[in-house]
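ok trying this again, last paste got cut off
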Amino acid sequence: MSGRKPTPDALGDILKKSGRSRRKNDGEAVKRHDVITPEINEKPFKLTSYIQSDLNDEADMAVVKLKKIVGKVSKSMLVEESLRICLADPEGSGLAAALRERNRK
């Protein structure tokens, strides 16, 4: 080398003192944490959709009415359970007929 002194690795020294290192040894076993079940770790998927303002108002009113009947209710819960019902039986729930009617417009 051209007479330069090696630069000390200050961060590496700090990490070594705390028990961490920047590089893992090839022979070092990888420690894994216990696996968390999907129910605990799973975050809900955000669904964004555009609806008419009157339908939004009806959903708000339904949430208020349902809170009196069943307790804790949110608009998200209302939408999620409605989707479950409609997707479980598209013909019986009227979903298929409503979509056909909407497509005719």
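PB: full thing came through this time. Residues 48-104 form one domain.
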